[in-house]
TrEMBL record:
SMART domains: PA14. This is PA14 domain-containing protein. It comes from marine metagenome. Residues 68-205 form the PA14 domain. The lineage of its organism: unclassified sequences, metagenomes, ecological metagenomes. PROSITE patterns: PA14. Pfam families: PA14. InterPro entries: PA14/GLEYA (IPR037524), PA14_dom (IPR011658). Residues 515-559 are annotated as: Disordered.
Length: 592
């Protein structure tokens, strides 16, 4: 368990080490680096601590910078013979290509003489030295930021020029003048720089135009306070908005809802909702028509609309109605705006943190917990809501760009509606998964209760077995006692037992007496042996003394008697033998 806790700790710490952040302070400074800490006290990035009152905007894991190269390129063409590049202020162009491209092309001039002026923006994502190569037939002049960089002379031949300049990160004004004196128009412009290999800025043919940004990229709901919930809406009722999958932490009432989007909306579709600079109460149909009127009721996902021309009409949310505009949202004001990776936009008066987790507890959110890995941006600014920003984007487009966007509506539907349907399906799967998890948790609880009951029953069974063994032992003991009592109270058995006990007592007494007699005999024998040994030692001493005296007498006699001593020795030996025999017989007699 401790090992798991240590692994979890280092894993959570690794999340911060691997999370990048870019902070824009209210003083106008930009700080980029690893996000080391975030919480109620502020943030720490690149070794610097910042309080929330000093932070204007923070991007968590910021996406790479925008597209590198040209953008918003406008083309003006002057056809005819021109020895020098025409003055655009004095001579109107023959044609103007208002399609905003991100590359150069001389395809429209073909093999006819004329001049082309390209104007747009050159985007760079790294500061450093950039290298440019220009090739043209005939002449060309290349400008960046209002400064002339490269020039090729108009001499009826293909000429090249190269140069290197330093550019900072951002957008730079781009201008290229091309003059074709005769034959087929040829123009080449290449560049390279930091983290950028040699790549062309022009093309021989027209490329497909990039798709316009969506107004509402995902189905969801716009709250009255400007928050946008990027989650598919299941149905509407008179009191609340129901989301697919019933996501936790989101509770939006119809009173606090400003607009409901059942499908993603393109810029021209979203523009049909407004009248002037504000939205109109009504229903935007799937076909693109907007019906303005008073919304009488919303029940079971059916919107009842009272119109001036058609009277009362009912529309099914999702299948017939693409969006419903209920009321004008509140005016933007300075507050915290939190954008998530899923597209939700949350507006808060203050930030509440539980460690590194953001806790959102302001309508329409209730105790919604967001981890740092789910947040894309945190900013403190006054910004219009997502619908008003879409209106402003549409209003800033020129006529040609609007036509292109309208023409690409089918492509928009193929791209974003499929994504919306996939999100709905994923939300349904998520709800099903949560339901299965809750059912699994209930089953686990039931299984846990069953196992606890089984364990209790096992304990009861073990106790019952123990009690049974104890009862059987007590029964055996009681049975033995009963048998013993039965034998004790039987006269014959009692007499036999008393006789047995009496004989046993007598045998014990006889044994004790025998032991006592043996001990006394052993003591007597020990005394006799001691006395015998003492007598023997005394007699042995006397004998040895007598023998010594005899030997001394014999020696003395030998010394006195000089003749044959053989008879004397024989007599002495016989006398000694007789004495020894008498001594042995006396000992034998005493031992008897």
């Amino acid at each position: 368990m401790l090992r798991f806790a240590v692994i979890a700790y280092w894993f959570s710490a690794g999340l911060f080490l691997l999370t990048a952040a870019t902070v824009h302070t209210r003083a106008g400074h930009l700080i980029s680096g690893n996000l080391e800490k975030i919480g109620a006290d502020g943030i720490r990035t690149a070794g610097k601590n910042l309080k929330w009152e000093n932070v204007a905007r923070i991007w968590v894991n910021p996406a790479p910078a925008g597209r590198v190269g040209l953008s918003d390129v406008l083309t003006r063409i002057w056809r005819g013979d021109h020895k020098m590049f025409p003055d655009e202020t004095a001579l109107d162009p023959s044609s103007v290509d208002t399609v905003r491209r991100h590359y150069l092309t001389v395809r429209r001039l073909g093999n006819t003489p004329g001049a082309i002026l390209f104007e747009g923006k050159l985007n760079t994502t790294h500061s450093g030295t950039y290298h440019f190569r220009l090739g043209s037939d005939d002449g060309a002049r290349f400008f960046v930021g209002g400064k002339e960089i490269l020039t090729t002379p108009a001499e009826y031949s293909f000429r090249r020029a190269t140069k290197s300049i330093r550019l900072d990160v951002g957008e730079h004004l781009f201008r290229l003048e091309y003059l074709n004196l005769a034959s087929y128009a040829l123009l080449e412009l290449e560049w390279s720089g930091p983290s950028l290999p040699w790549s062309p800025l022009g093309a021989v043919i027209d490329w497909p135009l990039p798709q316009a940004p969506p107004a509402i990229p995902a189905a969801g709901a716009l709250a009255w306070n400007g928050s946008y919930i990027a989650h598919p809406v299941e149905s509407l009722t008179g009191s609340r908005v129901r989301f697919v999958g019933k996501p936790a932490g989101i509770r939006l009432s119809t009173v606090n809802a400003s607009a409901i989007f059942f499908h993603p909306l393109s810029l021209p579709m979203a523009d049909r909702i407004r009248s002037g600079k504000v939205g109109r109460e009504g229903v935007l149909l799937v076909g693109g028509d907007f019906l303005e009127g008073e919304i009488l009721s919303i029940k079971d996902n059916v919107i009842t609309l009272q119109t001036l021309l058609f009277g009362s009409r009912k529309y099914q949310g999702g299948s017939q109605a693409a969006a419903v505009f209920l009321q004008k949202p509140a005016k933007e004001r300075k507050q915290w705006i939190v954008r998530t990776l899923l597209g939700t936009e949350i507006r808060l008066r203050k930030l509440e943190w539980d460690g590194s987790t953001l806790v959102v507890n302001q309508t329409p959110f209730r105790k919604l917990r967001l981890k740092i890995g789910e947040i894309r941006e945190i900013a403190y600014l006054a910004e219009p809501n997502v619908l008003e920003r879409a209106w402003a984007t549409w209003a800033a487009m020129d006529t040609q760009h609007k036509r292109q966007t309208i023409a690409g509506q089918s492509s928009f539907d193929r791209t974003y509606k499929v994504r919306s349907e996939a999100k709905v399906y994923l939300a349904q799967l998520d709800e099903k998964w949560r339901r299965l998890e809750s059912e699994h948790a209930v089953i686990q609880q039931e299984l846990k209760a069953i196992l606890a009951g089984l364990k209790q029953h096992e304990l009861v069974a073990r106790k019952a077995r123990s009690d049974l063994a104890e009862t059987q032992s007590n029964y055996t003991l009681a049975n033995s006692r009963v048998n013993l009592n039965a034998h004790h109270f039987n006269p014959k058995i009692r007499e036999a037992r008393e006789l047995k006990m009496r004989r046993l007592t007598e045998a014990k007494a006889a044994l004790e007496a025998e032991k006592k007699s043996l001990m006394e005999r052993e003591k007597s024998n020990s005394d006799n042996v001691t006395k015998y040994k003492a007598d023997r030692d005394r007699q042995q001493g006397q004998h040895e003394k007598h023998a010594a005296d005899r030997n001394a007498g014999l020696t003395k006699a030998r010394a006195i008697f000089k003749g044959d001593s053989r008879p004397v020795e024989i007599y002495a030996a016989v006398a000694r033998t007789r004495k020894a025999r008498e001594f042995s017989e006396s000992r034998r007699n005493r031992s008897r």
